[in-house]
Structure formats: structure tokens, C-alpha cells
Sequence to fold (548 residues):
Amino acid sequence: MITLEQVYVFAGLVFAGVAVLSARDLSNLRRFGNAAFWGLFAASFLFGSHLTNAENGFLALALAILGGFRFLGAGRGHEAAVSGRFASAERHGNWLFMPALVVPATALFGSLVLKTMIVGGAPLIDPKQATVISLALGVAIAWIAATVWIRPRAVVALDEGRRLMDAIGWAAVLPQMLASLGAVFALAGVGKAVGTLATAYIPLESPLAAVCAYCLGMALFTAIMGNAFAAFPVMTAAIGLPLIVHKFGGSPAIMSAIGMLCGFCGTLTTPMAANFNIVPAALLELPDRNAVIKAQLPTAFLLLLCNTILMYLLVFRFGAHR
Amino acid sequence: MLVLLGIAVVVLGFAMRANPLLVIAVATLVTGLAAGLEPLAVVAAFGKAFNDNRYVSLVFLVVPVIGLLERYGLQERARMLIARLRAATPGRLLLAYLALRQAFASVGLTAIGGQAQMVRPLIAPMAEAAGERMAGGLDETTRARIRAYAASADNVGAFFGEDIFVAVSSILLIKGFLEQSGVIVQPLDLSLWAIPTALLALIIHGARLLLLDRRIRAARRSDPPQ
Fold:
């Protein structure tokens, strides 16, 4: 069975390669900072499962310090001259898209077919992690296919990977760090405290006030936590169920469905949802770290308004509770 | 209530534009200590969560392959493809991507798309190329804006499509949580009531994508690039 652990070893080896190439990158004034950063990142994938929690904690802190105090630089790539890439694009034609499309195609095939396949009595891939495992499989297949077809020098892929990872920089570990902060928040009971606070200070005498508080609360709390999944249980236990459903007789299905989507509006607005908002800005090499958020803000606000109106119009009318 | 100090650190940190990694480290420490944990226990809790969440970072595995293909002209090829399509403008192209992304997500195929896999190598260069053709050249600000909108189309499409699929994690979370609270709902009901918002998202963001074309033309008129 292919499990997440094997995928982590693959990832660890790739980032270890990036670290070695960083150390040798003379165009980067801070090359040893980059090498240390990607080296630790690789170590987390390779050995994380065998380290103690505290050791993993210090590893994460070291990454935060290296990234936070500007130990990382960016080397110039050996980016082929534009004319060279242009000629290559002419020569290889639309086949160039194939390896790029192999990745989502494999991810799709994996989550639909491989997930249910059983070989020798055991599932082929861990069904709980089908999507990420198939992503890694897709990357491996595309990498091999592109190498066999184009026949670049052996280190080209890793070196181009290093160039792109330099462009992304410390933002690469941000989503994982934020997820970890979320776990510590949950451990400390932050959600409950917010829920208590929200209900204690907001007067919710009417159905309209309750709907507004729930929708706005979902969006706001999601923006703070970076994740609608963290906000939903808190806001629903504090406002949704006791007021909208039990006191005013609204439909729990409509409330929850639209409430979750109010949370997604919050996700569009926040740097805390780094994998959706900050990492893409780095990937696309945008000068403004918040450019993606700015492109999404008007949509988020309009949609949140629409959601609130929708919920008010629908929740007490259809499939009401009792 | 002391544990809310961590949230204050996060909000303050982002407002002061401090490095997010440091903000997270401080917020973690403050929250853990406020909850009455020993400093070492806070580090351990953070380490455990960091280790458990490694799968979040696996998306970067795709980066070397994309880099390799870009070295051999992937972005240029994407531009050539668009240059042949007369009717393509950045707005129309991104609207089509938004609709497709949403449609795929609504039947559970969120794996098709993604910022690293689709937007960086294909969608953003295509939208830029369409913009270059439409306006006859782009300044850096407009180029960056088109890229940011490409990323936004991917996000909006995924967020407001996936909740129509009955087996997506958010629907399972809702069902599970309500069940714990003694309220039974059917997943199909939940996905049904996600449809009105999905349509509104397509209309609102779609309209804004089409307005992007106008903004590009206006920017071009007021400040022609050299």
C-alpha cells in the first residue's frame, strides 16, 4: 500500500535536492540561509515521523526564525533566454502541455479509481489520503515522462524547482504554520471563548439580527482563523442552533449550507488563508503580497451581503425545524 | 478569555505588516501560555500539529516539473495558443476558467485546477497573452492585476463549487457537527441549498472579470506603455 509516509520521503528527497542546489547557488548572497531553510523543510518530511513532538516544534521554530528574520535570498535562475524558450515552444508544440496535464489527470484518476483498487488483499493507496497521494504520483509520472521526452540534463528540473521555490521563499511554509496555529488555538479553547463573547455582547432579539450576526460572525471568525471549518462549529453552537434554529424555528440545513459559504467569503479576504491568497501571489511573482486578496475583496463583500439576504429569505420559509 | 490574546497578536501582527512566520510563532506562544501550558509543552503541541499537517505543503512537489516545462517554453506555448483565438480577452478567458472550475468542483473534481498546477503555468500566461493582444501591450501594474485575477478565479470557482458536491469535507463536517448536537440533516439538502450562492458567485465574480477587460483598455488609453 502506498501511504502518506512514502510520499513524505519523496518530498523530503526533492527538497533536500533543492537545499543542495541552493548551497551551490553563487548568484544568491544568502545561499546558506536558503540551504538551511530547505534542508530543515526536507528533514521535516524525511524524519518528522521519528522525531519527538518537542523536536518537531523546535524544527518549526527554526524555520520561522530563518524565514522571519530574512535569512533567505533569491538566486538568479539560469533562465534560458526568452528566444531559447520561444524556439523550444515552437519545436515541442502543444505536447508541452501533456506533462502539465498529467498531474491533474492522475489526481483525478487516483481519487476516482485507484482509491478503490485492492491489490493482494490490501488497498493500493491509503484511501483516506487518496488525493494527496495521487498528486504525488502524478508529479512522479509527469517528471519521468518529461525527462524521457525532452532529455534535459539531470539537475535541470531540480534547479528550476530551486528557482521557483526561491521566488516563493518563506511563504511556502506559511499554510502549514497557520494550520499548526489553528491546532494550538483549538487546544487552548479559543473558539469557545469567542463564542461566549459573541453571545454575551450582541443583542439578538429578532430573527434578522440573529441571521446577520451568524453570517457576519462566520465571515469574520473565518477571516481571523483562516479556515471556515474552525469557525463553523463555534458560530453554529453559539448563535446558529440556539437562536436561528431553536428559538426562531429556522431550517438547520439551509442555515448550515449558507453559513458555511459565508465563511468561504471570509476566506477570500484574509492573509491567514495563506495557501489560497498569499502563496499564489508568491507563485505568480506579484510585487504586492496582498494582490490576490484585493482582487477578491469586492466579490467577497457582495457575496456575503447576498448570502445574508438569501438566508433571511429562505431559512424560515423552507423545511423549517419543527 | 486570556486565550484571546493570541488572536490579538495575529490581528496586530498583520496590521503592522510584520513577517507572518514570526507573528504565528509569537501568537502560538502567547496562546499556549495563556491557556496555562508550560513553554516546552507549547512547543511540543506546535511541533505535533506541524508534523501532522505536512500534507498541506505537498502541493509544492509539483514545482520542479512546472519549472522544467517552463524552461522548455510552456508559458510561451500557452501564449501562442491564445494568440490564435481572436475572441479571447482576459475577462472572457478567466470567466470560462471560473465556470469550468466551478462545474468540476461541483461534481467532486476539485483536483482539476489549482494555483501551482494550473494558474501559474497555464491560466495566468494565457490571460496575459490575451491582454497583450487586446490592448496591444501591457504595463507592469496591469500585468500583475491580470495575474491576481487569474488566481482569484481559481479560488472563487473552487470555494463556491465544491459545496454542491455531497461528499465534500465541508458537508461532512456540517452533518457530523449537527448530528452531535442532535439535529439530523441530509447531505443532499445541504448541497441543494449551496446552489443559489454558487450561481450568485458565478454572476458576481464573472461580471467583475468582464469589467477587468474595460479596466485594461482604460489603463492602456490613459497611459500607453512604451
Observations:
- DSSP finds eleven helices and no strands in chain B.
- Chain B touches chain A through 112 residues (CB under 8 Å).
- The longest helix of chain B spans residues 195-222.
